[in-house]
Amino acid sequence: MAGGETAQLKSDQVHARQTFLRAVRTNGVDTIRQLLGQEGQEAIKLDDAGVLGETALMTAAQHGHVDIIKLLLTEGWSVSKKDKTGATALLYAAKKDHANAIETLIEANASVNDQDNEGRSPLTWAARHGHVNAVKMLVQHGAVVNYKDRRGPIPLIDAADGGHANVVEALIGKSSIEEKTKALSGAASSGHMEVVKEALDTTASTLTKEHLY
Q1: Where are the bilayer-spanning segments (predicted)?
Q2: Which residue segments constitute the domains of the chain, with CATH numbers given?
Q3: Higher-confidence residue: 26 or 39?
Q4: Are 67 and 55 contacting, i.e. CB atoms less than 8 angstroms apart?
Q5: Taking the CA atoms of the chain, what radius of gyration do you get in angstroms?
Q6: d(CA 166, CA 54)
Q7: In sequence order, what are the residues at sequence separation of 6 or more whose Cβ sits closer than 8 angstroms to the Cβ of residue 76?
């Protein structure tokens, strides 16, 4: 192949990859199908990654593009691959509260309790950022509620410290008395009295139901 043709081929491949990644970010499903099915097939590789090692599947999960997630999974993208920080596509979705993306990835056998390099699970990130939809979806699919990352706090305490009352409500009924006490203490110390009230109301309601039934 002549030098000019080689240069043109490389240029076309670069353009195909750029177009592909832009389509992943902007939910361009038709563009992705066209690229994967035609001239972009050889240029777009499953192991292509960004600066942090993020794959196209991780980018789709980060933006909550469920149709693209499904398409990429069908085309062979790995649901368990990690970026340089140890994060999977599921963790990307959890950090942005994309419950539908979370469900899609779990249905594709994503590990709900996988941790990044700092020992943070998808539930850890969702709770820390106050993403109640993600929290509920992860718990529904078996996320370990009382798992500690390397810093020590469990998701409930992270949520309480951050003032995320709705997440505290979702998690507190699944935690021990000791963990509830730590969460309440942390919330009170941080001035999050609405969290304290929510936690007490939820605990009282649970105890009442247990007593009645």
Answers
A1: none
A2: 47-212 (1.25.40.20)
A3: 26
A4: no
A5: 21
A6: 30
A7: 46
